[in-house]
């Protein structure tokens, strides 16, 4: 049993590993989700969680069954969903290890199954002016500041991957107004919206985007170096945020 709060964790799942207290393999009408629906215990609260890239981190961003993941969590009772995504930092002053809560996104992906297919005008053309729930965004930001972390906002560029970008592509994303780049916020965010699930994203910068590093460190080296620190911050933040969100519900 979990409350109405759910998590989708991307790279860095290992940080939550010790907190997994139950795990249920499910199938949805859209196929199998990336992982069992896990129950994660955070400060005595139970939260349903799916590992976006699978329990063995073997599912690439373009191969994730986003529809099954969001559907399975909704079936488990999730109505507020926090996604944790690693990103490359584009904007000035944004560096590996930093946290961000994007308030907008631009979708550059293609060919992904991105709708449950509503049967009327309003459910098919969901309103998406604000892709991330403003209340949940604010609550994440408040918890981050309470933990002593500065938190950025900005525009998340969702790239198709799986390769990383060229420097020229990052220049274009910056001209488009993007401040961070990742591969997984879409179609996750819109599928949650279709199901009426409030969705916000906690981004962890693990590298400078292509061509933006002040040094010569290769991107994978940066990721290896900053992942553990970034995820430690996420774990600390969740320990503060989850009880705040679930106060009085369990
Ligand atoms: N680009 C795209 N996705 C990413 C990156 C990046 O630099 N870092 C982490 N996810």
List the ligand species: hypoxanthine
The largest pleated sheet is described as: 11 strands, mixed
CATH topology: Rossmann fold
CATH superfamily: Nucleoside phosphorylase domain
User: What is the approximate shape?
Assistant: globular
* Percent in strands: 15-25%
- Rounded radius of gyration (Å): 17 Å
The CATH architecture comes to 3-Layer(aba) Sandwich
Query: What is the helix fraction of residues, given as a range?
Result: 25-40%
Structural class: alpha/beta
Count of domains? 1
Structural description of this entry:
By secondary structure, the protein is α/β, with parallel strands linked by helices. It has one domain: Rossmann fold (3-Layer(aba) Sandwich). Helix content is 28%, strand content 24%. The chain contains six helices and eleven strands. Strands 1, 2, 3, 4, 5, 6, 7, 8, 9, 10 and 11 form an eleven-stranded mixed sheet that branches. The protein starts with a strand and ends with a helix. 46% of the residues are buried. The model has no long low-confidence stretch (mean pLDDT 93). Bound molecules: hypoxanthine (HPA). Hypoxanthine (HPA) is lined by residues 86-88, 159, 164-165, 181-183, 206-207, 209.
Sum up the structure in keywords.
eleven-stranded mixed beta sheet; 250 residues; alpha/beta; Rossmann fold; binds hypoxanthine
Please specify the SSE layout and strand pairing.
Elements: E1 5-9, E2 20-24, E3 37-42, E4 45-51, H1 66-75, E5 80-89, E6 99-100, E7 104-107, H2 121-124, H3 134-146, E8 151-152, E9 155-158, H4 167-175, E10 180-182, H5 188-194, E11 198-208, H6 219-246
Parallel strand pairs: 1-4, 1-5, 5-11, 6-8, 7-9, 9-10
Antiparallel strand pairs: 2-3, 3-4, 5-10, 6-11
Helix pairs in contact: 3-6
The chain binds hypoxanthine (HPA).
């Amino acid at each position: 049993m979990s409350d109405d709060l759910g998590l989708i964790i991307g790279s860095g799942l290992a940080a939550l590993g010790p907190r997994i207290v139950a795990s249920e393999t499910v199938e949805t009408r859209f196929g199998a989700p990336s992982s069992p629906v896990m129950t994660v215990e955070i400060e005595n609260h139970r939260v349903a969680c799916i590992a976006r890239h699978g329990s063995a981190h073997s599912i690439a961003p373009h191969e994730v069954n986003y529809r099954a993941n969001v559907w399975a969590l909704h079936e488990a009772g999730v109505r507020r969903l926090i996604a944790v995504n690693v990103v490359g930092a584009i904007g000035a002053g944004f560096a590996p290890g930093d946290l961000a809560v994007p308030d907008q996104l631009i979708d550059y992906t293609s060919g992904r199954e991105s709708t449950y297919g509503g049967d009327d005008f309003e459910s098919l053309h969901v309103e998406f002016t604000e892709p991330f729930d403003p209340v949940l965004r604010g609550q994440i930001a408040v918890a981050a500041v309470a933990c002593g972390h500065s938190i950025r906002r900005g525009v998340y560029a969702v790239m198709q991957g799986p390769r990383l970008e060229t420097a020229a592509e990052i220049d274009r994303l910056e001209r488009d107004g993007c401040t961070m780049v990742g591969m997984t916020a879409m179609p996750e965010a819109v599928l949650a919206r279709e199901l009426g699930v409030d969705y916000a994203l906690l981004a962890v910068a693990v590298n400078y985007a292509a061509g933006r590093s002040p040094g010569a460190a290769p991107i994978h080296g940066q990721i290896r170096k900053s992942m553990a620190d970034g995820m430690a911050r996420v774990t600390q933040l969740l320990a503060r945020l989850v009880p705040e969100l679930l106060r009085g519900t369990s």
